[in-house]
Amino acid sequence: MASEPSSGIPTRLLGATRERVSIIGVGGHHIGRPADAETGIRIIRTAIDAGINLLDNAWCYHDGRSEEIMGRALRDGYRQRAFLMTKNHGRDGETFRQQLDESLRRLQTDHIDLLQFHEIIHEGEPDRIFSEGAIEAAVAARTAGKIRYIGFTGHRWPHLLKQMLAHEFQWDTLQMPVNLLDAHYRSFAAEVLPIAQARSIGVIGMKGLAAGRIMEAGVSVQEALSYALSQPIASLICGMESLEVLEQNLRIVRNWQPMDLEDQASLRDRVAAAAADGRLEEYKTRW
Known about the structure:
The chain is of the alpha/beta class. It has helices at residues 28-31, 37-50, 65-73, 93-107, 125-131, 134-143, 158-166, 188-191, 193-198, 221-229, 243-254, 261-275, 282-285, and strands at residues 11-13, 20-22, 24-26, 54-55, 83-88, 112-117, 147-153, 173-177, 202-206, 235-238. Helix content is 41%, strand content 15%. The strands form two sheets. It has an eight-stranded parallel β-sheet with strand order 3-10-9-8-7-6-5-4. The termini are far apart.
């Protein structure tokens, strides 16, 4: 259930963590796209001032530039107002620890609220994480206070996320595509979401606009975001590389009302033909 604070940005519980996060979050990859780092800093601070508290990032984004920009943005008291998440490519303990320490340095913080194993998209990666020391390194980092919660992400193969869930570990979160197209091709909503719900794992959505291609299926940005936000997720990460896009998303979220099941089904039917072969979800199909 969403709760609406005075900012007008609804919040939801993040799984079983008891943390409340804004229903949209700032995507870290887009923060590193503008040539001027000050643009990214303004987007982050404007978003936090507007009531968005979930910040997404990853060790790899723009060779660390996104984390560095976010670290600068979180000075002057902004860190205390943010739920900070970044991602780690480590599949073995040594790599995990190295990347985590680099992320902490770039983000200019002594702890990360949520650390997620990034891009579980290749066969064998779930077993590597559990056999080469990476999961032990994550637990040790949590015990040491460097991270608070542990999750994972993936955007290509639902069965790989199910393999992560099959291991005996209490995940706090997972991040996966949540959009109108997903139901028609390698559906994360059909295969992964029910498992996460049953285990009270916080689901963070991404690719709400299918990396910008969802409009080719004949729907508007507002329709696409409204649909994604109506799913049983904690938050939707949105890529915003300009203040104009941020303001657009803020308007949509402040006026958002949950979409009923009939309207959701009608929208899925509208995009069925365009979504059937996965061509608009290149993050699932391009490799």
